Amino acid sequence: MKTKQDRKWLEALTLELRIHNIPGVKIGDTLATVKEHLADSGESAQVAFGSPAEYATHIAASTTTQNVSLKGTITRSAVGLIAFLAFTQATVPWVAGEALRLGVAQVAWLALPVVAALSVPLLFDKLLRNFWILAALIGTAVSGGVLAAFSAPRTSAEAWLSVAPLPVLLITASIMVIVSFIDTIATAKDGDDSIIDPLRSQRNAQKTRAFSVASNILVSWIFPIAALALLVLSALLGR
Amino acid sequence: MQTKQIFEPSEEEPEPAVGWPSDWLRAALGLCTLQALESGTTYGYAIINELDRAGLGKVKGGTLYPLLTRFETAGWLDVEWRPGEQGPGRKYFKLTELGHQELAMQRKAWHSFTSTTTTFLTPKAPKN
């Protein structure tokens, strides 16, 4: 690649092609074609191909896209994250044999990460294209979680609501497992969607695909695994 | 508008070599690209140069490659990547049997169209 601008242009194109649900193999082919043309013509990517968003739109209109979208994967991750956050709130009270006590301020702060997660599908394109919107959303979610922890009621008298922790654990665990299961089916059905350089050998590409499918399935189960680890840790520390 | 100036393939591409309206060139570009592929295996930048030598202007990559992608998706082209001696690899295109049939069909239709248009455009004596 000739310049830093061209490298940035290619990174932006990769993102735009992903947003259009272009398969990874086709993205690899498109990137390699752009590099070939830039080497042949000596032009900059911006001059030869225009903006990454518009070029991706032209490519998407010229080829077939895939059914499984990045948007679906991220939405499922957001649902899994909400379930995981709720699970973490109920773990310690359950191990201690106490009720899950919630304060008004705590619930209000907890609403922030929930709203942030639910807004992901609506703001999807903007989040991917604008780092600062993404940073603001993550900052909001994290701040809400931290402030919720600090505003948790310390006594039963301070609690606005007391609920049994076991149903919360069971419901949130079920949601996490269902979401992970759906993710696993999607990964197994569609296989790997890594960006493959067309010049890489078939054998290397197959190895990459197998590794990528395995790691994708592992990532799909990250919330149930983390929840189980948290439960075990809480039980050990609670003894 | 910086972006608009830089990338508007539908408005600015290909660059007219002899001042033809860009609409005409856009209409003919697909057929001319198929024609450039008729003589055998070739690659993107070679097609751009061939169209330029033919007097059709310098087609931008942002215009040509989506067109080639569409032809590939339609089954008109076979493609093969070969490693480059220096720098990136090269993607070679070759017309399939279906691509040759499409070229023949489009060429015939184009001749018919231009013949009809030329006949119609013959200057006539004004009616009194």
Can you put this structure into words, describing what you see?
The complex is a heterodimer of chains A (239) and B (128). By secondary structure, chain A is mainly α. Chain A has 2 domains: 4-62; 70-238, no CATH class. Chain A contains 11 helices and 2 strands, in the order H-H-H-H-H-E-H-H-H-E-H-H-H. Chain A has helices spanning 4-19, 24-41, 45-49, 52-62, 70-96, 104-118, 120-129, 131-150, 165-190, 202-220, 222-238, and strands at residues 100-102, 161-163. In chain A, strands 1-2 form a two-stranded antiparallel sheet. The radius of gyration of chain A is 23 Å and the shape is elongated. The mean pLDDT of chain A is 84. By secondary structure, chain B is mostly helical. Chain B has one domain (13-118): Arc Repressor Mutant, subunit A, CATH 1.10.10.10. In chain B, 58% of the residues lie in helices and 11% in strands. Chain B has 6 helices and 3 strands; from the N terminus they run αααβααββα. Chain B has helices at residues 2-6, 9-12, 22-38, 44-53, 61-74, 97-120; strands spanning 42-43, 77-82, 90-95. Chain B has a 3-stranded antiparallel β-sheet with strand order 1-3-2. In chain B, helix 3 (22-38) runs antiparallel to helix 6 (97-120). The longest helix of chain B is centred in the last third of the chain and has 24 residues, at 97-120. Chain B starts with a helix and ends in an 8-residue tail after the last helix. At the A-B interface, helix 2, helix 3 and helix 4 of A face helix 4 and helix 5 of B.
